[in-house]
Amino acid sequence: MNESDLVFIGGGHTHVLVLRMLAMKPIPNVRLTLISDTRLTPYSGMLPGFISGHYSKAQTHIDLNKLAQAANVRFIHGRVTGLDVDLKRIHIHNHPDIEYDKVSINVGSTPNLTVPGAKEFAVGVKPVSQLTATWAHLLAHDYQGKTPHWAVVGAGAAGVEIALAIAHRFAQQQKPIQLSLVQSGSELLSNYQRGVQKAVLKALKRNNVTLVNHFRVAKVEQQQLVADDNQVLAIDKSIWCTPATAPTWPKKAGLATDELGFIEVNEYLQSTSHPDVFAAGDVASMTYSPRPKAGVYAVRSAPFLEKNLRAALQHTKFTKTKLQTSFLSLISLGNRTATGQKMGFSFSGGWVWKWKGHIDLTFMDLFQKHLPYMHNDMEEPMQCAGCGSKLGPQMLQESLKDLPIYKQDNFPHHLVKTEDAAVAIVNKEQSVYQSIDGFRAFTDDLYRLGIVTTHHAVNDLYAMGIQPTSAQVWANICFAHPRLSKRDFQQLMSGITEALIHHETTLVGGHSTQGKETHLAMVVNGQQHHIWPKNNLKAGDYLLLNRPLGSGVILAADMQRKAEAEIVDGLWAHLLTSNRNFFTAVQNHEVHSATDVSGFGLIGHCLEMVEGSDLQINIDSRNVPLLPGVLDLSQVGIASSLLPQLLPLKNRCMVSENAQSQIIDLLLDPQTNGGLLVSVSPEVAEQLLVIDGVVKVGHVTCRMQTGDKEIAIY
Description:
Blueprint: E1 4-9, H1 13-24, E2 30-36, E3 40-42, H2 47-52, H3 57-60, E4 61-63, H4 64-70, E5 74-77, E6 80-84, E7 89-92, E8 95-99, E9 102-105, E10 110-111, H5 118-121, E11 122-124, H6 128-140, E12 149-153, H7 157-172, E13 178-182, H8 194-206, E14 209-212, E15 217-221, E16 224-227, E17 232-234, E18 237-240, E19 244-245, H9 249-252, E20 263-265, E21 277-279, E22 284-286, H10 295-314, E23 329-332, E24 338-342, E25 345-349, H11 350-368, H12 393-400, E26 422-425, E27 432-440, H13 446-462, E28 467-478, H14 482-502, E29 506-515, E30 519-527, E31 542-545, H15 551-559, H16 565-575, H17 580-586, E32 593-596, H18 601-610, E33 615-619, H19 630-635, H20 643-646, E34 653-655, E35 676-680, H21 682-688, E36 695-702, E37 711-713
Parallel strand pairs: 1-2, 1-9, 2-5, 9-21, 11-18, 12-13, 12-18, 13-14, 20-22, 28-29, 33-37, 34-37
Antiparallel strand pairs: 3-4, 6-7, 7-8, 10-19, 15-16, 16-17, 23-24, 24-25, 26-27, 27-30, 28-30, 31-35, 31-36, 32-35, 33-36
Helix pairs in contact: 1-4, 1-10, 13-14, 15-16
């Protein structure tokens, strides 16, 4: 049973290595959490190769989500904004605080952009994640025939590599560019051997990069740099590779910092002021034995940080951090050559590039080819969570149809033919409707789980045109020490209550338990004089859907560690968005039929709408909206574990030869927090189609023959 929380802030080089070590040898009874504002963390040593075009984004980035899954680590996607060292709380933007018992910080640093105008007009080389996101836009910018002039500010090793990488990439694309490498002094790479300096100067000359000396930037304007002696350099863009600056929040939190704001740590990488706080990498200042801000020291610190975190939690002896004073230093020269030095010797050439590439790719293989998959019995079939964890329709119908039901005149007696919500109380004025929904947890971020489950649960009332008024919760929290269980419950309930306020719904009670896994379910109640029925279709109606399909496939891919970070980010942007805006907009119009798309997929819920009628729903496969990346995942065979139970529904569909066959299975994909599907007249549809995200996915016709299928897909 977990008894303590060890939280890692940031996915820097030290942390990713430590998490990998802890995956292979966990600390007993300790829960690990990683907080990062990005799912992808770049390996800085390969950034020049990425800019040059020698490496892809996938080759140069570590997927923190996949690492966390492999290492059995909770992953919280959020930006840390502060620390309360007295209450041991981590403040996160748009997220409840995360509590810790021990915390380690490895968030890196950024170039000094305090020069007036730099934040508005300059691009920092760090954080690397932001630069890689910006690089594609910079590269694709149209200067309308003009040769752009870019300046790289800072002529250290990083500045040299970036300038030469940019020059090589533009040359490969046969695009003109003027490049300047700006430094405040006059000696290039003064801490490097003469051989390295010569190789770099030769590469700068070969790539027509102008070295601008004695230019200390005092102001950045939109199209020029201004020096402290009033020199002016006209440019179109500046990329900054200046010395590192620290984040502001560690000092504000009261942690001991050096004069530049970096966290002071002792020989155990432990804060000199707060023993429950550790730090490594650029954000740390090793006051006992100062080292420059270099990736090699972050990597070499990992074994010592791992040992000392383990010692702090197990109350054993600490290990002093011992890092070498000199190290192999390699500089990429744009093309597939490099220069470097070690122990007084310098060297250059293509073989140095190959050597550097071997070192870099070997490091990345630790997180791409050789992740330590721990804590999972891979022989057991993986079962989906979210709506993919539900029972199939045939199993439900066969199990429910013969159950004895106590009959009352006010209530329906047919369990297998129900609306999205059921009548719970009948009075003279209006009925009270009630729905229940929930599932196994599909994320370790319980705050987000609470939000999504709430959005999902209220959809059943929205699908009937009912405003929810009250809700109750059943929460089953995974076994842990009572102190950790309290933290989990607070995270979960924070998400639920925040979402209920969004839906103008009151939490009135609930029930809580503990078990092997986290589960969450909600009962939602509402009142309405006139409801939208599920199966009251009219011939000629248009079917409108306000949200894309594909959440079941992406959740399945995520569980299998096969979903790329951008796809998972897109999924969460979708899951955290509710249907409330569409619901309120549709309330002002006549709706013939409505439902929400959830566990039985679009086809399953369309079949419920057409059940018992002589009508046919026609689905236009070309118009069905899909989440980004889901089609590619489906084409390689990834699907929800519920799909086999839904496939028999195809027998009730007629598929045209012109239908896009690759999306047919996606029409059966179980949706978590799926969209609302409404059947309205063409006149009403015209007014609703102006709403962002709303599309016409089909229309309703009479069946031509008795044997016609209920659904036609074309």
